[in-house]
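Quick review question:
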């Protein structure tokens, strides 16, 4: 009877196969730092979380701990992201915690350490969505370079975990610039993943503290 039912509903069978090949990736931005609060450009500088940021990380950790246990947690190696990741991994009972510089914030070159409004006045073209290919003086990345770097890493994560037992979610600790680089075609966008070209089937959620 089970065989007959499956034959009668090929769409359902195809759907089941698709689900087995799915990797769910949960994206969480790191908690606040004192530089965030002061609107100072952090880029690949390494300030730690402030108390507000740690509280934000704990809120997200409690929420994720009520869901299926992730197979792994991936994070930038910068302290604000790695501490957020550690708090979440501990709350979720995850031992597979990976820190990788490939997930770092955009390299902001000569703009590191400037107040955001001052940086915009100094180099407005860098913050324009029309300037996606514009590299930042001092070794900084363009938005296109940032996007390619982070999308490549996400594809690697999704490919590694697709269809695995218990692979319901892989919290991935990110930076605001990395999220924006993959957002809609306008500055200040809040939603991520609008123009991903992912070869690996992947269900994506975004979760902010």
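Suggested answer, residue by residue:
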């Amino acid at each position: 009877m089970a065989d007959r039912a499956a034959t009668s509903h090929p769409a359902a069978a195809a759907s089941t196969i698709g689900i087995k090949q799915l990797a769910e990736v949960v994206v969480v931005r790191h908690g606040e730092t004192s530089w965030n609060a002061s609107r100072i450009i952090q880029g690949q500088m390494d300030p730690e979380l402030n108390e507000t940021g740690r509280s934000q990380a704990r809120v997200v950790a409690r929420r994720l701990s009520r869901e299926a246990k992730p197979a792994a947690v991936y994070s930038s190696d910068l302290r604000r992201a790695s501490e957020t990741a550690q708090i979440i991994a501990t709350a979720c009972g995850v031992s597979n915690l990976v820190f990788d510089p490939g997930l770092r914030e955009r390299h902001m070159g000569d703009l590191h350490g400037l107040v955001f409004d001052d940086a915009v006045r100094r180099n407005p073209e860098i913050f324009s969505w029309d300037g996606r290919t514009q590299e930042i003086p001092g070794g900084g990345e363009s938005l296109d370079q940032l996007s390619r770097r982070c999308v490549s890493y996400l594809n690697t994560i999704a490919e590694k975990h697709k269809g695995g037992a218990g692979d319901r979610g892989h919290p991935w600790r990110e930076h605001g610039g990395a999220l924006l680089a993959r957002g809609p075609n306008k500055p200040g966008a809040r939603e991520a993943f609008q123009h991903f070209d992912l070869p690996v089937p992947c269900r994506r959620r975004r979760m902010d503290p």
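Why it works: Helices lie at 2-8, 10-20, 34-37, 51-65, 79-92, 116-122, 143-161, 176-181. Strands lie at 23-29, 73-75, 97-99, 172-174, 202-207.
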